[in-house]
């Protein structure tokens, strides 16, 4: 089983399971993989399964290969080969392959002060020699000073005229684009809902809104709480959000009040506790009801929602 992973941008960390033959990618609501980053079109591209691999076809937006070259179509795309939709990079990999750890990029500004300090040090070391050389020079005669002054004024006038002509002839550069503005409740809710869906938080986190703000609420574990906080930080980093967003989600304990010693799946899936109780789906123990036995986790509901991996 393979999946299409989003490596950069607002939806970094999102994945689309590749079950089927064809998928639409873009900013449209009905897209199989919805991306709301700046520059992404409604029907940006189409991903298709072929006998030799995968095929990506550009529709309404730009498509780049793994070397950054603009192209209209990528054929025989193999797992692990990255491609880009504008400035958003994606890749098809096996669903079992772990995600790389998210590390902040190292800051490079510290190199600039060091370079400046080195330049100051060199200038300081050369200063005594320069002063000594100046003292040893003989003073220029008056006529030479006048010639130097006249030449300097002429050079300044020539440079000023050239710069003035160049500024008139060349058009002004367009202003750099800023962050997309989120000022309406409807648009902000649309973006936040998509981000919750991409991170699998749409079931445990409820999004509500009034005329002036949005509110996130729900009971989630500590891992999901960290994902929610990173999502909000990513939202404010990529968008100019004008509405207040209140995070009311609470963290709940993931510990069960009993110990599980056996898990059985199949038509009669059940668990066995340390004291010998056999609990089937729908049964309740310690005010917790067993609601699902998944391939890698157990889900309980009741006094609190608990999901335990096994």
TrEMBL record:
Domain YscD-like Bon-like: 188-249
Species of provenance: Erwinia amylovora NBRC 12687 = CFBP 1232
Domain YscD cytoplasmic stretches: 5-94
Gene name for this UniProt entry: hrpQ
Designated name of the protein: Type III secretion protein HrpQ
Stored InterPro entries: SMAD_FHA_dom_sf (IPR008984), YscD (IPR012843), YscD_cytoplasmic_dom (IPR032030), YscD_ppl_3rd (IPR053946)
A Pfam family annotated for this UniProt entry: Yop-YscD_ppl_3rd
């Amino acid at each position: 089983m393979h999946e299409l992973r989003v490596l950069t941008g607002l939806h970094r960390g999102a994945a689309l399971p590749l079950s089927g033959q064809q998928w639409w990618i873009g900013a449209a609501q009905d897209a199989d993989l919805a991306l709301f980053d700046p520059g992404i079109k409604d029907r940006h591209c189409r991903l298709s399964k072929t006998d030799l691999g995968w095929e990506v076809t550009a529709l309404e937006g730009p498509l780049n290969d793994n070397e950054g070259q603009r192209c209209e179509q990528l054929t025989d795309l193999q797992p692990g080969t990255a491609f880009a939709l504008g400035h958003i990079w994606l890749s098809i990999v096996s669903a079992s392959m772990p995600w790389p750890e998210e590390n902040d990029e190292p800051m490079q500004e510290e190199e600039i002060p060091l370079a400046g300090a080195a330049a100051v040090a060199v200038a300081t070391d050369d200063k005594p020699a320069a002063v000594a050389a100046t003292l040893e020079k003989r003073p220029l005669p008056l006529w030479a000073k006048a010639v130097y002054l006249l030449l300097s004024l002429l050079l300044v006038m020539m440079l000023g005229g050239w710069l003035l002509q160049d500024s008139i002839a060349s058009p002004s550069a367009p202003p750099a684009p800023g962050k997309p503005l989120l000022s309406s409740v409807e648009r902000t809710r649309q973006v936040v809902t998509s981000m919750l869906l991409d991170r699998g938080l749409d079931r445990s986190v409820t999004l509500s809104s009034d005329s002036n703000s949005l509110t996130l609420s729900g009971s989630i574990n500590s891992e999901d709480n960290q994902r929610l906080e990173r999502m909000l930080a990513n939202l404010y980093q990529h968008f100019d959000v004008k509405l207040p967003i209140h995070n009311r989600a609470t963290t709940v304990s993931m510990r069960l009040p009993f110990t599980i010693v056996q898990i059985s799946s199949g038509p009669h899936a059940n668990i066995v506790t340390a004291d010998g109780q056999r609990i089937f789906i729908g049964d309740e123990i310690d005010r917790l009801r067993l609601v699902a036995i998944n391939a890698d986790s157990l889900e309980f509901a009741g006094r609190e929602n608990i999901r335990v991996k096994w």
